[in-house]
């Protein structure tokens, strides 16, 4: 019987079998890749069609960009120019066309990321979340996509989902202690929990995010509570506007200059604006303070206080800038 099966022990036969298997694997991989790319293209086409109908770019220009031999990288750069100038609708339309022309996974990942940022800045939170999830499908460890996904959840007040994303970032070694503290404090602030219990739990996050003390001060004022019952007193730089506009007085040496400027004590004042306000009031001039809010990161200016910058998304970057102005007299305003 060994005579009939001797060819199975022949090295040449073994090589033939090995190369046959490798050939079958290669053929299978090729067809699998073809079908996979086709399926991925259909998926992207469906995704693009889902949002393209609401595009603000004229159809003739869309057709022109699709027909012209322009690669996805050039379209991505063009869309970026529109996004930086604030024309997000045009940027979105071009990103969608670039997505259809993208070939490699890295190209698609980058375009999905930029498209999601454009939707986020344009105020389309739910769409931005969908786009960032597509980017994460391609690269689950994309830190930029995860960070912006968490920001989208935060803006929609989906705090639990935002915390899940922050946990994923923390697992990758990203320092998100401040973001976690802020999100948990924000979740508590918006909850229906009893006031005392809410404040006690929020205070636990003050070490990781200093502006939690301002959030607690806001709660005390909104609920008509005595601000001097606050255990963790906020820094004056973080709450100058609130304390100036609030009738209550917060005890502490750090706040004496502010209340001296308001004429409530005789403290020596070193701050220029507060001293100017006191001098104006001492001379019976109608003066008050107005406040501007500037991001210390991107230098953007806003009329209202922010915990996270609307432009650069930096957390805790708000600088409160006081300005002495003439106090308006409502009685002298003509209607």
TrEMBL record:
<dbReference type="InterPro" id="IPR019734">
    <property type="entry name" value="TPR_rpt"/>
</dbReference>
<dbReference type="InterPro" id="IPR011990">
    <property type="entry name" value="TPR-like_helical_dom_sf"/>
</dbReference>
<dbReference type="Pfam" id="PF13176">
    <property type="entry name" value="TPR_7"/>
</dbReference>
<protein>
    <submittedName>
        <fullName>Tetratricopeptide repeat protein</fullName>
    </submittedName>
</protein>
